[in-house]
Design brief:
Layout: E1 3-5, H1 7-14, E2 21-23, H2 28-47, E3 56-57, H3 63-75, E4 85-89, E5 94-96, E6 99-101, E7 103-106, E8 110-114, H4 121-133
Parallel strand pairs: 4-8
Antiparallel strand pairs: 1-2, 3-4, 5-6, 7-8
Helix pairs in contact: 3-4
Length: about 160
Amino acid sequence: MALYLSPARAAADTGVHGPYQRLSPADPAMRRTLGWRLALLATLLVGCGFDVSRDQPFAPPDLYRAWWAKTEACSGLSGDYDQVRWEVVPGPSFPCSSGTCAGHWQSDHTIWIAGDYVQNEMVVRHEMLHELIGRAGHPDPPFGQGCHLTWASWAGSDT
């Protein structure tokens, strides 16, 4: 692995003047430069994660089990309802990677629901369907066709 520094940086970090200087991984300047770049990368990666403030654990109402069964039926999939960890975020929405959300699913079996939507069948079942398919995105089917669990396809609790 080689890291090239500009002449000014090479002079400042290594005391060597002249054209670009090649540093070996054992050089202190290489370790310093690599260290701060790795720290910056780690910070950026952590910043890309989903982190909702103000969320609170939530004991879902019994009605959610009936909604889970309906979601299994329309999708043809089955899953473990009891492994889902529910969180509620007070208010009508919360920030998420796609902008502003009423609900959000994460692969560690966590579902967040905005407080104003905890009784909204479509929002809750939409996130349940993510849990059942085990991924983000909205493949059709089961979203839209099979399970009408998008804002555009929801026609009421008949699906």
